[in-house]
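Many introductory courses stop at the sequence. We go one step further.
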Amino acid sequence: MNTLYLFIDESGNFDFSPNGTRFFVLTVLSATSPFEIGSPLLRLRYDLLPNYACGPRMEEHGFFHASEDLQEVRNHVFSIISRLDHPMRVDSIIAQKNKANPKLHNQPLEFYKILAEALLKYAFNRAVWHDYDHVVVVFSSLFDRKKRGILKQAFKSLIKQYAKVSYALYFHDSKFEFCNQAADYFGWAIYRKWESNDYRSYSLVQHLIKSEFGIFEKGGREFYEYKK
């Protein structure tokens, strides 16, 4: 069985104002052997448990989360995922929020649907081109009920276009899904690059990041200014 696994996570918020994040990012980690990603992260987790080396956040929650982990923990995780050498890739959809049509500012779920459909369509096209038999899509459990509804709707719509390949969609608790934790780390590195011009983490994993598509880049108009 030739199966492609897609692990999807998000970065940024839905605040369409000068106070919100400048960008919203959806990231997909594609892999054919997900256990090759999960195994070294599981080993790291156990290596960090003695003497509370994982830090207070990990102590309480028990899984890796880039935005909240200690920098020392981040260093360990990025060291591992940057050295992954089995077939995999990372792709992102990047939205500069102040370039989005103002109609979408009060309809964040419609905005989300546009990004989700673009990411899923891209991933599904790749699956067909590479003759996969099955595609398994795993979203982080952080996606709320409304977002899940949008993703399921977009997912079912795209299945009709790519009926030659069998698909399965899951929402897994990130505590137990190390590949989602890896996707979170990749997404965080991409987000920090775009949001804060911070390349420290991005430079470590750049060789695994195959595309960053600015979905509103062609639009020259900005509908509000961000705080400096």
